[in-house]
Structures are given as structure tokens and as C-alpha cells.
């Protein structure tokens, strides 16, 4: 069976599994699921444990945690604070770091393309402390990890692969962990801005809004890499595909269709190419309020990282550490 | 017959006519068409002359001129210059103004939502001269019209209808013409950024990316109003509709459908609402490079207006007049 | 005696009085002073009650309240909150408004010149409600005044005097009060960003960073106008003047000067013109961090106005009303 | 004798020499000067050839070229083009590079502080080509050098010294030359925005608007480093110093001063500290129109570099290569 990614593109392991389950209609061997939820959020932990599951899911082996909270679309300070706490807790659980290891935060994406700007905007809100380590009092130092951050820009702006730039910096700074923040593409418009994904696998080629050509992984950098991503777009092709699926799946429209006749995958692609001819891949579907939404969710992502990195900083005063 | 706008939304009279022709499959009485083209651009002039045509087209009686040039998507200075010239010429032909009348340029839309920011960005590039009239030498004054400009912001930002603000300013400034610049929604993704529309009818409620609640028309302002618009988004619903239509129209997919069975308009809407449930209207489909594209097309629109207003300013030095 | 403003320029009544007192070395008739302070802030209320005092101070008759708090330079949420409360209280005390009167907030200044952008940035953070009045429940409506806001831009951008634009809008909207927010010039660098001034006199020509040519006053608009300003620049000439004064005033440098010899006002100007020849008035002295500082102080000003306008909105949730 | 930099700070070798000459009133051994000029610009080439000259000038041994053109303050396309050409020519003459060597452009400074944003803004306008080398046709390749660019951000934003980041990237990318673009401080307000300096010495600690703590030099990076800088600020202290000097130097004011009595350097500093007490170093003096001016001069700097790097690209179409 083909990996599901050939039909609808998603960067969320959660959605890859949903789509696969829909087709396979049974549990997928090698994929473990664990869920917890409260009234505001659902946390799902997907672990891909076998090469076979990796191939079927189209996602690398490793642990993927998603925090879903539809309320993130609305300016709601207490909810944002709560999701920051969840993110901080999951991030700490995913990374086992020596107390004095430095962490390098990498904001991926293009700051000139609003829905791709999540990484740079979140990186900008990180409390960087690596340069202050010698100035901190011993009490404070205990809860303030050495953190540094960079947003290298994309290939078209720098002429360099992000992977090359980060390799160079990692070889010089020697962090114990890299956290890469990136804007993602979802298969469902409801997940846009409302979902945060942590992945123990780092960033792999082809993912993200800007379709990375390179990877940022433990293999390429020599240190563990955690990827934190938020879907900010749905590909236009997804909407076309969703329309076809809706058409077929709903009995109400049965009178229009010959019984049993399912469109082949090839026919689906033919239709989509007809609807979105030249633009394929160039159009993005994004919320109207994307500028404000990106700013808000970048604050949530940065806030969660800040809490995980610097547990002893009083959050009321965390802004004192900000540039 | 229902106006076509109930199915797919477009602010372009050109597209409204295309869609209507497709359904009616004959000439529409009361709609005059005139076309001219060269290797870079097609200019179409649609005139709606009867109330019946107005109802069928879903567009007010008046003259609509579109300049289409696919090359506008690419940074191409000579082509941009050429389209500016076309726009200036059509704008002059549409407006018969006494030499010393003041023109007020209104940049509509929300500067915080990139695809809706065309109006404010173009208005900002207008060569305003009303405050300099007493300082200009007689030779220069001859080719430099009195022009002023404002971008009032949208209802959610000001708490005032744009119509109220502009009525107040018009009553004070007493211009001879208002030119309103606005971002539009197209039915076809190929027209996004590549088409400029001039309308002698002004702005009518429900149009534009931000779905205006008010109108800016000769009736409401007491002076002629020309609207200049560029499609910057396609509504997500359009993609869903396009998919359904493609599916039905292509004989190749006939094997899936029962013969003769066309989806009713109501069924189409049911499907679209299923595909884009809560988001309906909140999602926009826009090119990835929208930030750069808006900046470029705003320069073309402002350049065309500047040329029409100030025929004697040497274009090389037009920047000398800019703030 | 010449008004002090011919030597060092300030928009603060407080500083005008300080400078005048220094020269006159006695109480100024027609100028009433009242001060209150706590550990974080000093509030000074200057009332100019006679035409003679108006002439000597170079400030129109009326009430000027300044809230000074050096801590405003540092990101300090509790202090910012406290100053917002002070501002709200002073603003309420200065304006006696019928409960259902609409208030129009005007953000003056040029958004393209960071230190002049205070007005537009603060206006953008105002909770506008005029368009929501019909939708509010009766309980809520009681504490939510009808507020609208606009940032018209400066003469070089619009070709229209701000006074003309606001007159037009006021004649249409008929507010009961106009609040104009503006960036000011101070005589002392210590007051930059740390001082908020309320003036019952509105805006007078020649004031502000951009040196207004027009006024926004009860006389010109037909409704009361309160001006709220924050110094964001010191004119470069001020630094030159301060240097000369310091040189003369300090006995320690007496050995360099002939006894008794004070520089004449004319000589001072000759020196300043020598030091700052062509640039006079074009250079501004501003803190390095002006971008961040303007953003922070704009939030304080807008927050104070929001509290004064909408006493029943819970501040925790005030962001819910923001666009 | 103390280096002049203890009194008035300048990053321009040209000004350091002017000030030194004024004090020493004779030629400085080890400093070579060469000048050429036309009606629009003066080009001065200062070479510091001895350790003694380095100490007296407060500038490292090497070659410093300044292009001065007061017209750069005004939007003037032909003049900007001319200065680009001059800059390109001087840059080529300063660097002898193998044809296939890669060049890394580094935009220094803080993009959040407008006068310090020259480096990032210019770097953004560089035609990067390193990632396109394999795609270029042989004819084109000949005049299109492999160029890449990065704006790393400042210490307070990244937690890393810019020197560390660039060392890491250089070790990975292995360029044949680094060109570092930086905003400078001038001693004279007339040089702000009107002067471009090229220095064969790279960047040394303490220079620039943001007062670098690190160096970017051949010694630290292992490859030649050319620094290109434009003064965008004058330090507030400079204006105070200028005032004192003007006061003393002009015979017209002699009647106020005791004959022969010159202020000691220490007294000067006491005065300046009195005038600019807490702010010392935090205030900057900058033109009101700095946002527009930085944008324009960044285009000139980037244009000059682009021409030097890619002599075969037709300037009309250079934008085609831009992201």
C-alpha cells in the first residue's frame, strides 16, 4: 500500500495516522497511541516503533506529541498560559538533558511569508541566556539554563542550506540539544493554529510550509534534535481532495454516483491538477487573521520553551529577561 | 435564474460574465463586451446597461474594465511599466475631470491582513500634491493635479464605517472625484495578482476581501467614484466548487456518475459546508509569495494613478514627489 | 521677557515652568501647581489661568497634568499597570462626559518615523466599540462607552491637514469628546518615554515631534479636546543648549570664564547654529531602544484610555475586545 | 598623546584623521592620503601603515576608502546609481579574488533598532547565487559569482557572539572573502547617511552603532574580511563636545572666556556627563527620516556589492535574481 502522503499532505503524525486508519480500518502494527485530555485540550502521543510503520505512516521512527486546543484561535490569556504549561511539561519529558548543557533554538522558515514566519517569530521571543551565564548569581543560575537562538532564513535569502548553517554553528557552540521551531502544513483546516506538535525526530526533508530540502536530525547534527511545529496552512490540494472524499463518502449523494465506484487515486490527482493547474503548491490556504494568529501562537510556543528551559524564572517577570 | 454569485463568489465583472455565459450558453442581453489585446495583456471592457443584466450578473450597472497580464506575477520592470501606462489610459478615459478638480484616493482594506492590504499600500505610494498647490510653479502646476489620499482602516479597527469617514472627509475637502483602491476576491486562482479592474460604479456592499458592509458610490458621496481593484485571494469555497464542477464536466469521470444526474445547487452547498465546516469565509487561498506580490502590484496601481493624475511629471523623477 | 521656548523647545508645561522659574526665580503669577507622589510616580498638575501666564509659559491657558515615572523605561508589568490606573483616573477627572456620548480617539503622527509613531500605535490598541453598541447586552453596555479611533497620517502622506480630516469626521460622527494622542519633544532626556502629559487644551500648532501646522482644539472642532502626549525625542539643539548652560552654571568651570559674563541669548543661538548647521530641526535625539519603548508606552497610554472609557470591562479579558 | 577617540567617537578613519590633524597641526607619519572628486562625490583613501599611526588614529593598520556624497540624503536615482558604481569599483580594487571563490556577506546589527538595521537590510538586498551555481548556464556563470548572505542578529537576541556564529558558518561554507556590512557612528552630523566607508581591516571590537564586543577579521576568521559601513548616528556626546569646541574656538566668544584658558579633557568629560547623565551611550542622534534613509542607503550598498560580485548581470534585470 502506498503511503498516505501521496494523496493529502500533512506534517502531523496524528493526521497521518487518522488517514491511514481510515483506509486500513484496523490498528497499524508498530504505531502506539496514548491520549489524555481535559476540557481545553487533547494531548496525543504517537510512537512509531518499526521501519514498516515508518513506511506506512510516511513519518520517521520516533515520538510525536500533539497538543490540540481549538481555543488557541481566540485571544485567551489563561488558556494560552495553560497550553504553555502543557508544552513545557511534554518538552521536558521528551528531553533528558544534563543540567549545564546549552540548548540552541532554531527558528526555521521565511519571515517574509507570514504563515511561514512562526519559527523566526517564536525564536525572537526566546529568553536567551548563554551570554549571561557568568553574570547570573548562583541561586538564579540553577533555574536558568544556557540558551541561545538563531533564525537563519531560508535558502532563497541566504544561498545556504539551513542545514549547513546550523551544522557550522553547532560545531562551534556545541549545544547538548537543538530545538527547531517550524510552521507546518495540516490536512484539516480545523488544526491550523490550534495544534502544537513535538517530534523527537527533528526536521526531515520535504516537511514544513516551505518544503525543506534538508534535514535537521541527530544524524546530521550529531546532537539530539526536537522539532516543535504548528500547522499554519492547509495546502489548496487538500481542499480539493476533501471535496472529492466528502462527495463519495456521504450516502446522501449516492443518487449521483454509480454504486461501488470509487475514484482511483490517479483520477483524484487528475481532477486536482485540473482544478489547481499551474499554481499547484504555490497557493496556500490560511486563516484571514493569520498575522495576529501567528504572533499569538509564537508567544505560546516560545513561552512553553522558556518555561521548560528556565523553570526558576518567575513568569510574571520573564519579560525582564527579554531583549 | 439565480445570480451566479450564490455559487462561486467573484468581484470581477469579467468572471461573473464568464460564469453566466457558461450556464446560459448564449449572449446576455444588456451586457456589452469589447476586447483588445497584445502579447502581454488583454483588456476587456464590460458594460452593464440594463437592470435585468445587473440582476443576472450580480454587478451594478456601469462600466468595468479589466487589464489581465499573467506576467504581473514576476518581477519584470518593463512589463509593470507597460501595465501602468494601460491603467493610466483607461483611468483617464473613464473619468472626465475639470483640470483644477481635486482627486481623493481612498485605500480600502486592513493593513494587518496582507492580502487585504493592497489599498493602504497603494495609497501610500500616491504622489499627494494638494498641500503643495500654492508652491508649484505655473509650468509644473499644469501637469500636476491636486491629489490627496487616505487609508481609513476597517470597521474593526476604527469603530466607524469607512463610508462615514469618507463622507465626512469629502464634505470638508470637496474633491471632484474619489478613486477607491481595494483588494478583491476572484473565482479563479489564475487571476490572483494578474488582473486589475476599474469600475465606474464605485464600491458596493459585500465586495472585497474584507466583505464591505457599506458602499462608496456617487449616490452615497455625491461625487463620482471609480473603484480600482486587484484580486488577491480566492475563497476556499471556490476551490471546493471548482472540484465538484471539474468532476462533473469531464467525460473521463463519467463512469463514476449516473448518467444525466447533475448535483443540485443545494447539494453543492451541503458538500462545501461539509468540507469547510466552521471556517467558511474565514479561510483564504492566497499565493505563498503574497507579501512581495502585494507590494509589486500596489506599485503598479499607484503608478498608473500617478501617471493619470500628473501627466507632466517625469517618471524618472516621480520619486522626488514622494514622502 | 521672552518666552523660554525661544531657547529650548519643550512640549511639556511642567518643563516650561521649570525653565521659567529658573530664569525668573520667583513664583509665576497665574500658574497654579499641585503635586502628589508615591514611590513610583510623581503627578504634577499645572493650571495656567491668565493670558499673561499663557504668554510667559508659551502654553495655552488650561490644565496640564504630568505623570512621571522613570521605571516606564523598563519592561515592568505591575508598574505599567499602575501608571495606566493613574492615567485613567486623571483622564476621567479632566473630562465630564454624559454617559452615552461617543469619544473619538485620534492617533497623531507619522507611523513611518518611529519616535513619531506613538499616536498611531496607541490608537491601534484602543478598544473600539462604537460599531458594537447595538450588539452589547444592557449590563455590559453600562460600562462600555461608545469609542471610535482613527490615525489619519501626516500632511506629507495625505496632502490634507489633520485638522481638516478630523473636522470632517467630527461633523459626521458627532462625538462628545476628542482625545488626541501625540509624541512630544522634551527639554530633558530623562523625561523621554518616562512622562505622560494630559492637556485640557487640545493640540496647538507647532507642537509634537512632527511640528504640527494646525490645531485640534475646542475652537476648531466644536467639541472638547484632551491631548495625551509622551515625550519621545529631545531636539538636538537642546543638548547643545544644555551643554552651554552646564558650562556656565557650574562654579567648577569658573576659572575658564570671565566673571559675571553670561552669554547672551543671541550668542547661544549663534553657537548652536554653528554646531548643528544644516540639520537644525532635522536631527532628533532618541533612545536606542526607541522601537520597543514606543510599543510599551503606547500600551500604557491605550490601556489608561481603555480603562477610563470602559470601566466595566475586566482588564484580564480586555484583549477579547481587541481586533 | 591620547588617541582622539577618548573625546569624540567616530568609526570613520577619515574623521579620526581630521580630528588628529586639528590637534597635531601637522602631517601624521604613517598615514597616507589620496583624494579624487567630481561634482557629486569625494573619494578619500586613507592608508595606515605603521603601528604608531595605528595607535594615534585609534584605527587598525590597513586601507580605508570613503565615498562622500551629500546628495545621498535625497531620493535621487541617477546619483544613487553613480555611487553604486563607485562603490563597486573600489570594492573590486580592494579585493583580489579567484574567479570561483565564494563570498559570504554578513549583515551586522540589530534589525529592531532602525539606525542599526543597515546591515540586515542591505544583506537582504544581496543577489545570492551560491545555491544556483549548478543551474546557471556557462555564459551566465562567468559573470555571476557564488554569493551567500546572512544577518545573524546581535548578542542580546541570539545569546551568541556574532564572531562565533560567523566562525561556525565560515568553517562550513569556506568562502574566499567575507564582506561585513555595518551601521557606524560619525563625529559629524553631516556625514550621517552621506558617506560609505570600505575598510580592508574588517570589523574591530567597539565599533558600530551597537558597539561590537568581538571582531570579524582575517585573524579571527582565517579569510580576508572587508567591512562596508555607513554612519547612521552621531552620539549625543558628540553634540555636547562640538558645542564646547565651538564655544572655545570662535574668537567671537572670546569676551566670555579668560584668554588662553582651554578646558582640560577631564573637564570636558565632566561637563558631558553632567549634560547626559544616566543616558550616556543610550541616546542616539539620528535624522528624523531615518527609516526611509536607511532603506535607500541599504539599496546603494547592496547595489554596489551586487555589481562588484556579478559584473555580467544586466542591472535593469537584476531584480529577477532577487527573492
TrEMBL record, chains A, B, C, D:
Enzyme Commission no: 3.4.24.78
Gene Ontology molecular function, alphabetical: peptidase activity
Domain of life: Bacteria
A Pfam family annotated for this UniProt entry: Peptidase_A25
SUPFAM superfamilies: HybD-like
GO aspect biological process, one term: proteolysis
Top-level class of the enzyme under EC nomenclature: hydrolase
Keyword terms, alphabetized: Hydrolase, Protease, Zymogen
Keyword Protease: yes
Record protein name field: Germination protease
Species of provenance: Sporomusa silvacetica DSM 10669
Organism phylogeny: Bacteria, Bacillati, Bacillota, Negativicutes, Selenomonadales
Primary gene name: gpr
Amino acid at each position: 500500500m502506498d503511503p498516505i502522503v501521496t494523496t493529502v499532505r500533512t506534517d502531523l503524525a496524528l493526521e497521518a495516522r487518522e488517514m491511514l486508519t481510515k483506509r486500513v480500518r484496523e490498528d497499524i502494527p508498530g504505531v502506539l497511541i496514548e491520549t489524555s485530555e481535559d476540557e481545553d485540550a487533547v494531548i496525543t502521543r504517537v510512537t512509531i516503533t518499526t521501519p514498516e510503520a515508518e513506511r506506512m505512516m510516511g513519518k520517521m521512527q520516533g515520538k510525536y506529541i500533539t497538543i490540540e486546543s481549538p481555543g488557541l484561535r481566540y485571544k485567551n490569556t489563561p488558556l494560552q498560559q495553560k497550553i504553555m504549561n502543557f508544552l513545557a511539561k511534554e518538552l521536558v519529558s521528551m528531553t533528558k538533558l544534563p543540567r549545564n548543557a546549552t540548548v540552541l533554538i532554531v527558528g526555521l522558515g521565511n519571515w517574509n511569508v507570514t504563515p511561514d514566519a512562526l519559527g523566526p517569530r517564536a525564536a525572537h521571543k526566546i529568553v536567551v541566556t548563554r551570554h549571561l551565564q557568568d553574570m547570573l548569581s548562583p541561586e538564579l543560575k540553577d533555574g536558568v539554563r544556557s540558551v541561545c537562538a538563531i533564525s537563519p532564513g531560508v535558502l532563497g535569502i541566504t544561498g545556504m542550506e539551513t542545514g549547513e548553517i546550523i551544522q557550522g554553528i553547532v560545531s562551534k557552540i556545541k549545544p547538548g540539544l537543538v530545538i527547531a521551531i517550524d510552521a507546518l502544513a495540516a490536512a484539516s483546516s480545523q488544526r491550523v493554529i490550534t495544534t502544537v506538535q513535538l517530534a523527537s525526530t527533528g526536521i526531515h526533508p520535504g516537511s514544513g510550509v516551505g518544503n525543506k530540502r534538508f534535514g535537521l536530525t541527530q544524524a546530521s547534527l550529531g546532537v539530539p534534535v526536537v522539532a516543535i511545529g504548528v500547522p499554519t496552512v492547509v495546502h489548496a490540494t487538500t481542499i480539493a481532495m476533501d471535496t472529492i472524499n466528502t462527495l463519495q463518502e456521504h450516502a446522501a449523494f449516492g443518487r449521483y454516483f454509480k454504486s461501488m465506484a470509487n475514484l482511483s487515486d490517479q483520477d483524484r490527482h487528475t481532477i486536482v491538477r485540473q482544478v489547481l493547474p499551474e499554481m499547484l503548491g504555490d497557493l496556500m490556504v490560511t486563516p484571514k487573521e493569520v498575522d495576529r494568529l501567528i504572533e499569538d501562537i509564537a508567544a505560546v510556543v516560545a513561552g512553553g520553551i522558556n518555561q521548560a528551559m528556565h523553570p526558576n524564572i518567575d513568569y510574571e517577570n520573564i519579560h525582564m529577561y527579554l531583549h
